[in-house]
Write a structure and sequence with these properties.
This protein is 38% helix and 18% strand. With 330 residues, the chain is of the alpha/beta class. The strands form 4 sheets. Strands 1, 2, 3, 4, 5, 6, 7 and 12 form an 8-stranded parallel sheet that branches. Strands 13-10-15 form a 3-stranded mixed sheet. The chain has a two-stranded parallel sheet with strand order 8-11. Bound molecules: uridine-5'-diphosphate-glucose. Residues 77, 79, 117-119, 170-171, 189-191, 194, 206-209, 220, 222, 259, 282, 285, 289 line the site of uridine-5'-diphosphate-glucose. It catalyses: UDP-alpha-D-glucose = UDP-alpha-D-galactose. Its cofactor is NAD(+).
Length: 330
C-alpha cells in the first residue's frame, strides 16, 4: 500500500515506518522535524519536510504519491505543557488534523489511522478501562485528541467512503529490539527514559512522583505496552479498514505496573543502583490507568506479545546505550 506517515520521524512514528517498509509498503514520511530526528527516517522512505498546517503541501504529497492511507502520529504530547499552552495543543493536535482531513478530502484519500490516547478517558472511576468507559479528558492534551475523535466520526458519518481507526494508547515503552531507532524526547519526562538517564549518569538522580497514592505500593500504576506490539496493531488496523468503518481500540497489555516496579526493572536490566528520591505528586497524574484490551483481541486478533517489563526496558536500553546523546540535531 502507498502510505503517508505524518509525524514519521518521532518515537512511535519511526517505528511504524520501519515496520511498514519491512512489510513492503511504499512509505512517504511527512514531519516538521520540530524535535530533530531526521536520522530516524530510513533512506527507503520518501521524506517531505512539512507539517499538518500546510494544506497545499499535503494535497500535493497525497496526489504525487497516490497515497491510499494516512497514519497520523504528528502531535504535541506533554500533558503538563498542554495545561500551560492550550492554544499550541489545540492548534497542532486538533486544527492540524482538521487541515490534514480537508487535504485528504481534496485528494480523495479516505483512510486514516489516527493516534489517540488513554488521556481521552480522564480519571475513570473503574479499572480496567474499556472502550465504553465514558471519555472525560482532564487536560487540553486529552481534549485536543478527544475533539479529533469527534471530527473523525462526523467526517465518516458524512462520507460513506471514509474510514478511520483511532487506537487509544496507554504508556508506550521499549524500542526496536535491534536497536536501530529509539526514544528521545526533549525535554525528557517519560518514566523509563528518565530512569535510563539516571542509570547512565546523564542525570544525577530520578524522582518518584508521589508514594501516597491508593495503590498497593503507593506509587502510580500504568499499562506499559511495547512500541513494536503497538505498531503491529496499527498495521492490522490499516489493512482491516473498510469504507464506512469507525474503529476505536484500547492498546495496552491489560496489566498495570507501579512506578516502583519500573524502577526495579530498570535497575535490574542496567545493573546500576542509581539514586531515586521520593518527590511530590505531579499535578494531573491519576493513581491508576490500565486497559481492558479485549475488544481488539476479539475483533482483530491483536494482543500484546511482549508483556514483560524487563524486555521493554532492555530494548529501550539498547538504543540508549549506543546513542547517549539521542539523535542530537540530526
Ligand atoms: O521522572 C518521573 C517521570 C514519571 N513518573 C511517574 O511515572 C508514571 C508514568 O509517567 P509518564 O512516563 O510521564 O507517562 P504518563 O504521564 O502516564 O503519560 C503517558 O500516558 C498517557 C496516557 O495514559 C499519554 O496520554 C501520555 O502522552 C503519555 O506520556 C506517572 O505515574 C508519573 O508520575 C515518575 O515518578 N518520575
Amino acid at each position: 500500500m502507498n502510505v503517508l506517515v505524518t509525524g514519521g520521524a518521532g518515537y512511535i512514528g519511526s517505528h511504524a515506518v520501519q515496520r511498514l517498509l519491512a512489510d513492503g509498503n511504499t512509505v512517504v514520511v511527512m514531519d516538521n522535524l520540530f524535535r530533530g530526528h531526521r536520522a530516524a527516517v530510513p533512506a527507503e522512505a520518501t521524506f517531505v519536510q512539512g507539517d499538518l498546517h500546510d494544506y497545499d503541501l499535503i494535497v500535493k504529497t497525497l496526489k504525487d504519491h497516490a497515497i491510499e492511507c494516512v497514519i497520523n502520529f504528528a502531535a504535541w504530547t506533554y500533558v503538563g505543557e498542554s495545561v500551560e499552552q492550550p492554544l499550541g495543543y489545540y492548534h497542532n493536535n486538533t486544527a492540524g488534523v482538521l487541515t490534514l482531513l480537508r487535504a485528504m478530502a481534496e485528494a480523495g484519500v479516505n483512510k486514516i489511522v489516527h493516534s489517540s490516547t488513554a488521556a481521552t478517558y480522564g480519571e475513570p472511576d473503574e479499572m480496567p478501562i474499556t472502550e465504553d468507559t465514558p471519555q472525560a479528558p482532564i487536560n487540553p492534551y486529552g481534549m485536543s485528541k478527544y475533539m479529533v475523535e469527534q471530527i473523525l466520526r462526523d467526517t465518516a458519518n458524512a462520507n460513506p467512503e471514509f474510514a478511520f481507526a483511532c487506537p487509544r494508547y496507554f504508556n508506550v515503552a521499549g524500542c526496536d529490539p535491534e536497536g536501530r531507532i529509539g526514544e528521545d524526547h526533549s525535554p525528557e519526562t517519560h518514566l523509563i527514559p528518565v530512569l535510563l538517564e539516571a542509570a547512565t549518569g546523564k542525570r544525577e538522580k530520578a524522582y518518584i512522583f508521589g508514594t501516597d497514592y491508593p495503590t498497593p505500593d503507593g506509587t502510580c500504576i500504568r499499562d506499559y505496552v511495547h512500541v513494536v506490539d503497538l505498531i503491529d496493531a496499527h498495521v492490522l488496523l490499516m489493512n482491516a479498514l473498510k469504507p464506512g468503518q469507525q474503529l476505536f481500540y484500547n492498546l495496552g497489555i491489560g496489566n498495570g505496573m507501579s512506578v516502583r516496579e519500573i524502577v526495579d526493572a530498570v535497575k535490574k536490566v542496567t545493573g546500576v543502583d542509581f539514586t531515586v528520591e521520593i518527590g511530590d505528586r505531579r499535578a494531573g497524574d491519576p493513581p491508576s490507568l490500565y486497559a481492558d484490551p479485549k475488544k481488539i483481541k476479539e475483533e482483530l486478533g491483536w494482543e500484546a506479545k511482549i508483556t514483560d517489563t524487563e524486555t521493554m526496558v532492555a530494548d529501550a536500553y539498547k538504543w540508549f546505550k549506543a546513542n547517549p546523546e539521542g539523535y542530537g540535531d540530526g
